[in-house]
């Protein structure tokens, strides 16, 4: 992949730490030169440490007028205008296949053929979600998905979103007949879809995640899979914060077969920024108000902890969540790997994955409960949390805890899949959602499933994260128009 003509950034394992470069991760992104300027620079220098010229979380700069003096002491420009922004694509290789964390330059726009049975005369626009947004269009048997557009809560990124839709309309002569958006009514992409005046359909977040690989892998209808959709957040049918979902699904719809058991999400979005809140939430669920003292929570003031406890007990600004991402946050914090407040997205899970990758190999796992009293079934990780606390008290290191936790989650996924095969006859499993950017979890889960003779599908030329939502939304829109 490093030498391909598309020249993506490829994540490679570090041989040793370099001060100041991604200290929480065990990988670095490498890219070979692909422009004349790159080659000129590398005649004098063996390696360059570089970053994109844009404000954090804002779109990459394409016009000289956007350049501010705070970016650099020296600025080199060119008289050739950039017609459309595109970040570098970022991927790593897992089990001999690419795993995209960002799909952009070199890979878009690409016409993705639609499988037979879904081809429609209608022209469909899909506007994705709020974070890691992309848009997709369908016309004449093909889907074209945009480059990564960023998070739409930044006004500049929302402008980029609008710019990209207009660009696609002009470039491909596209005039949509209908528009698909996420179920979450507060997303800016959903608001835009409402404003178009077109027939507007809403699609549940995790169902869109599951549909995207079906379209990518050219599975024609009718098809039935068990989709394992793990991420940080998606608006659920019951109004709660979903994120650890097992969906029996096909193009026509889905049934929630199982999910991670609900836990309180104290403070809503604040719990995403401060992982200790989720650690406290799981501790209270595991041991009640008399949970044992945990060293990693000692730096948090008693006042803050008491305030969060009251949020949980009184259910003030505390929705319930089934999110696998928030479970990673809690375990990372308990193991002493997460800061009080994160500095970048998914910092706590990345630190947990890094610790697991550096640990001595083990196949051991923690206990958990698979609750099958009624549908949807539930995976309860309170026994996992209790055992982690016991190991911390005994002095167990964070690396072993991290690796055993990954093993636990992979085994739990397998158990649900085996149950679904027995009850529902499904043998196709889709692994999707941003949590499956974790190469350890993805690799171990895929290995266990294949060992048990499941057919495993996962995004290959698309990201498992929210970038693929618009592709899944297209699949749903096509199903509506060809019925």
Radius of gyration: 23 Å
CATH class placement of the largest domain: Alpha Beta
Look at the helices and sheets and give the structural class. alpha/beta
* Average predicted local confidence, pLDDT: 94
Could you list the spans in which at least 5 consecutive residues all have pLDDT below 50?
A: none
CATH superfamily caption of the largest domain:
ATPase, nucleotide binding domain
CATH architectural name of the largest domain: 2-Layer Sandwich
Number of domains: 2
In total, the number of strands is 19
Work out the helicity level.
25-40%
In terms of DSSP E residues, the strand content is: 15-25%
Strand order of the largest sheet: 16-17-13-12-11-18-19
The largest sheet is: 7 strands, mixed
End-to-end Cα distance, whole Å, is 40 Å
The number of helical elements comes to: 13
Q: Quote the CATH topology of the largest domain.
A: Nucleotidyltransferase, domain 5
Any idea what the shape is?
globular
Description:
This protein has 483 residues and is an alpha/beta fold. The protein has two domains: 98-217 and 460-483, Nucleotidyltransferase, domain 5; 263-457, 2-Layer Sandwich (Nucleotidyltransferase, domain 5). Helices cover 34% and strands 19% of the residues. The radius of gyration is 23 Å and the shape is globular.
Outline the fold blueprint.
Elements: E1 9-13, E2 27-30, H1 36-44, E3 90-94, E4 97-102, E5 111-113, E6 124-126, E7 136-139, E8 142-145, H2 155-171, E9 178-182, H3 188-195, E10 200-203, H4 205-216, E11 225-235, E12 241-250, E13 253-260, E14 263-264, H5 269-273, H6 276-287, H7 302-314, E15 320-321, H8 324-334, H9 347-358, E16 369-371, E17 377-380, H10 382-393, H11 398-424, E18 428-432, H12 439-451, E19 455-457, H13 469-482
Helix pairs in contact: 4-13, 6-7, 6-8, 6-10, 8-9, 9-11, 10-11, 11-12
